[in-house]
Write a structure and sequence with these properties.
10 helices, 8 strands
Length: 284
């Protein structure tokens, strides 16, 4: 209890992803190790600044031709943990298929607000649009992806009014949002209210479900079979809301995985989810 706030025990349980995973620590460690190995082995441009802040960095694994589709990835970690360094586990799948992979870094809530994190994510995509051609990417072929809290970030990027950046309104051509939360309102009743700062104003301002644009790109809303039921609901309802607004959406469930082992099919070109990512980008 902080002040007169007491978290709702059941909602806390629903948003505690480790409680729904059989071996979350091992799955995270495996995905992190794969990311670090890929960063060392694949040709790439690492730690490129997209802004003035020390955390505003990205890694680019380029295509071997020009004008290639671009996959921009936002890592998870509850806005409190993680980095781009451990978010490159899908890079090899993307580049082997002929695309370009970008992993975005941003600050954490121990330093900045969730609003500033979202501003950083948008600035990263604006930078990609303006600069990616020099690495072989097509600025007219940008797709976003995010997992867990990164899916909220990718969702807010997909809802961005790009005229504020002097860019076309269709900067993002499609998105894959994996095991995320798109209406943050329930988090106002959990520990996320105090440790992330998700109060009612933040939930209103930074929930993709509350900012669906007039013109929206195709979205795939994916979740793991063994994600918490609340994440199933979030994906199902946001997919329906996106479709009701006249935009293309698809709901995808990856079977036999949980919130953390979902990283395996995300990096597998033969999985249900891997095929969906590559098909959306025009790489299959």
């Amino acid at each position: 209890m902080v002040g007169d706030f007491t978290p709702d025990p059941e909602l806390n349980r629903q948003y505690s992803n480790d409680l729904w995973a059989s071996n979350g620590a091992d799955s995270r460690a495996a995905a992190n190790a794969k990311s670090l190995e890929i960063r060392e082995r694949l040709p790439g441009h690492l730690d490129i600044s997209y802004g003035d802040g020390p955390d505003e960095l990205l890694d680019i694994f380029p295509a071997d031709a020009s004008g290639r589709p671009v996959h921009v990835f936002f890592h998870g970690g509850g806005w409190m943990r993680g980095s781009k360094d451990t978010a490159c586990f899908t890079a090899e799948m993307i580049t082997e298929a002929g695309g370009l992979f970008v992993a975005v870094n941003f600050s954490k809530t121990d330093k900045v607000s969730l609003a500033e994190i979202t501003a950083q994510s948008r600035a990263a995509v604006a930078w990609v649009y303006q600069n990616i051609a020099r690495y072989g990417g097509g600025p007219e072929r940008i797709f976003v992806c995010g997992k867990s809290s990164g899916a909220q970030q990718a969702g807010m990027v997909a809802c961005t009014d790009w005229s504020q950046y002097g860019l076309p309104d269709d900067v993002v051509k499609g998105g894959v949002l994996v095991s995320g939360s798109y209406d943050l309102t329930p988090m106002t009743k959990t520990d996320r209210r105090t440790n992330v700062g998700v109060d009612e104003a933040v939930a209103e301002a930074l929930s993709p479900a509350k900012h669906i644009p007039a013109k929206g790109c195709p979205l795939i809303l994916a979740h793991a079979q063994h994600d918490a039921p609340e994440l199933h609901r979030q994906a199902r309802e946001f997919a329906a809301m996106w479709r009701a607004a006249g935009h293309e959406s698809r709901l995808l469930v990856e079977e036999n995985v949980d919130h953390f082992s979902m990283a395996v099919p995300m990096a597998d070109k033969d999985s249900y989810l891997g095929q969906a990512i590559l098909t959306q980008m025009g790489l299959l």
